[in-house]
Amino acid sequence: MKKSLTLIFFLFIAICSSRAQSMCRSNNFAFGDGEQLTFKVYYNLSFIWVGAGKATFTSHFVHYKNRPTWHVVGKGRTFSSYDWIFKVRDRYESYIDTTTMQPLTFIRKVREGDYRKYNKVNFYQDREKAVSENGTIKIPSCVQDVISAIYRARNIDFSKYHVGDKIPLKLYLDDEIYDIYIRYMGKEKIETHLGEFNAIKFKPLLIKGTIFEGGEKMDVWVSDDKNRLPLRVNSPISVGSVKVDLVGFKNLRNSFSSVIEWD
Question: Could you tell me what percentage of the chain is helix, strand and coil, using 3-state DSSP and rounding each to the nearest 5?
Fold first, then answer.
């Protein structure tokens, strides 16, 4: 339950890829210093969409461990009107090497109902190990945490893929490594609360849990421009369904050229 509720706010991990050691290095063209993205989380039961919470992501250029890095912070919380059902106050941080787009440090601080957890992980990619509050584990090449995955994914060259292609991902979460993938579904138009957009669509392979059934049942849309902004995520859950929509943005690096019409 704890992992699944966390993923409601960070569903966008599904849009990251990594194919081989030679692809561990990645150039960033999608985001810059001071970018801020805001998402609204909706829950649907009996055909009624209810706003349940929000998530924000910010990126800043900093020097960390004598390296130029991106410090990315993701926060997720339920609205006060929803807190009585299940209160969430989550904060995730990742320090990402600007040259390779690989994580150096990942920090997770969560409050979900009565559950509390803090974990800080230092990645040593060259030695294939990660050291957390709980000990040391061996990691594969190109592993990503849930925040670095999002931001590296925004720099994928989708022109290399065909509809139906699987894009594999090695993901670190809670001191475990998950081998998952996304299936590229092509391009289409999508309407959200912000307007109509040209978008790129994916179906990720979900980790089975108490809320998500597993399999390719989630749909993800990102903007078909250089920003690669997550626009919408839809997924059925054990009771009802959830939707995450982009509702606000500041300081984009590139023109939001995927917009067809604003609402």
Answer: 10, 55, 35
Interatomic CA distance for residues 113 and 134, integer angstroms: 22
pLDDT score of 169? 78
Nearest Cα to Cα of residue 125 among 107, 143, 101: 143
C-alpha gyration radius of the chain = 17
Mind giving me the DSSP string for 205-222? -BPP-SS---BS--EEEE
Contact 5, 88 (CB under 8 A): yes
Distance CA 75, CA 88 (A): 10
pTM: 0.87
For residue 236, count other CB atoms closer than 10 A to its CB. 14
Q: Considering the chain, what percentage of its residues have pLDDT values greater than 90?
A: 55
Tokens, residue 215: 């399999």
Q: Are 86 and 113 in contact (CB under 8 A)?
A: yes
What is the CA angle 28-34-38, rounded to 5? 95
Residue 136 backbone dihedrals phi, psi, to 5 degrees:
-115, 135
Q: What DSSP string runs through 150-185?
A: HHHHTT--GGG--TT-EEEEEEEETTEEEEEEEEEE
